[in-house]
Write a structure and sequence with these properties.
six-stranded mixed β-sheet; globular; two-stranded antiparallel ribbon; 194 residues; alpha+beta
């Protein structure tokens, strides 16, 4: 018997049964279209390591645009990009999304009114800060959003109060972010008028 005959005569292994398709994750419905969110991501198991800070503008039910900077060597680069809502809310190490403002995506010219964020100078600290970090860049952008009327602070509150609130809020959700518990929280700032 030739090799070919023995190979063809040998019973073939059963083919693996096809795996059922993975269900699509449920759409993220907690984010409000037009809302601006402050995003905090944990950096380490130890909360003392702080957070990575970013902004997110939820432009449509399916998603929006994440405004973000990342450190590259001694400098920084813009890492802003469109994202799905589900992608944002399932992002690795996300502490949560804190709603701080609103910019109507149906209003003409909204892209230009928000696009300045991606053009912020990444070579020097934002006004009012001595160093450039993702936190100072984000809070510098929040100051710009306040000046433009997209973030409104209550009474005599200021951006420093919002930063303090965000840090405290992030600490509350740090452990569950480290454990990868989903869904991640979406809450309204107590310092902002929404």
């Amino acid at each position: 018997m030739s090799t070919t005959e023995s190979e063809s005569a040998a019973p073939s292994a059963p083919s693996p049964s096809p795996q059922p398709p993975k269900p699509n994750p449920a759409p993220e419905t907690r984010l409000k279209v037009g809302a601006i969110y402050l995003l905090l991501f944990i950096r380490d198991r130890d909360p003392a390591a702080g957070f990575h800070w970013a902004l997110y503008h939820h432009r449509a039910p399916a998603g929006g645009y994440k405004f973000n900077v990342k450190q590259l060597g001694a400098g920084w680069l813009c890492d802003s990009a469109p994202h799905t809502a589900a992608g944002i809310m399932r992002a690795f190490l996300l502490a949560g999304a804190l709603r701080i403002g609103y910019c109507d995506p149906d209003e003409e010219g909204w892209k230009e009114r928000m696009g300045w964020i991606d053009e912020v100078d990444l070579t020097r600290p934002p006004e009012g800060y001595e160093v450039f970090t993702c936190r100072t860049w984000t809070m510098g952008c929040v100051r710009g959003l306040v000046r433009r009327g997209y973030v409104t602070l209550k009474g005599d509150m200021d951006v420093d109060e919002l930063e303090k609130e965000a840090k405290e809020w992030g600490l509350v959700h740090h452990e569950s972010a480290h454990e990868g518990i989903l869904p991640r929280p979406v809450e309204d700032s107590r310092v902002c008028v929404l």
